[in-house]
Amino acid sequence: MSILAVEHLRKSFGKGKDSHVVIDDVSFALQPGECYGLLGPNGAGKTTTLRLCLGLTTPDSGRITLVDHPVPQEARRARLKIGVVPQMDSLDPDFTVEENLLVYGRYFGMLPAQIHARLDWLLDFANLTNKRHARMGELSGGMKRRLTLARALVNDPDLIFMDEPTTGLDPQARHMIWERLKALLASGKTIFLTTHFMDEAERLCHRLAVIDHGRLIAEGAPHELIAQHIESQVVEVYGDQAVRWSAGARALAERVEVSGDTVFCYTRHPEPLLQSLSHTAGLRYLHRPANLEDLFLKLTGREMRD
Hints:
Strand order of the largest sheet: 6-7-8-3-9-10
CATH superfamily of the largest domain: P-loop containing nucleotide triphosphate hydrolases
Number of strands: 14
Shape: globular
Distance between the termini: 38 Å
Order of helices and strands: EEEHEEHEHHHEHEHEEHEHEEHEH
Strand content: 25-35%
Number of helices: 11
CATH class of the largest domain: Alpha Beta
Helix content: 25-40%
Radius of gyration: 23 Å
Number of domains: 2
CATH architecture of the largest domain: 3-Layer(aba) Sandwich
Largest sheet: 6 strands, mixed
């Protein structure tokens, strides 16, 4: 039984000739205990998809079942069983760390005794025990993000929606959040994650989908998608002569892309490329395995999105 099932979802905004399709026949399902990622460029439809799943936006057509409740018809009841980590922290600046958790728990109809019974665990989980009585102005960005994560767990949810949970954090804070998310998955929680960090998706997601222009264009386990869509080896070449060198490289690689002064060579057999580079002065290069970022750029393009 899926904890979240989305079937043939469609959503457009505007009317008549000004109508714009944002979600176009999207279907996917989350299984209990997995981390499912939704990746896509800006404007691809990720946030709209989350809002539809939460019952905050009404679809034009399609069906959503969230923790056994139809959405949006029974969205309020469904949301009692989920947690949400939004893109931007919405913590109350007038409250302490503890008070933010207490007040949020009341939104779920929890009794004060029920919330207090979870406080120690939540604070320990977020590594904020020594900040229990601190106000928001005393917390770093990483601490606030961990508090937002702890707040999403007040009601012991079955499913946690996370919308770009580590944006703006330094590497140490990101790694701490990752460890906390891995602990949640190990305990049997389910996570629905949107992120712009490909390494984050590759580390955390059991499965993921790539969405672009409102349509799901790929779905599967990260390593399976990489193997399916991308040559196994990548050679990145830099330098003033890299673009000129790329003309000859096209005969040595299955695929060559030029982005600015960088040449990306995709191949299953990198030896001819590496031999060519060893005899070419003035070029720097990096030889690495293909990764999720390569997949993302191949499927959605390298052009900037606003």
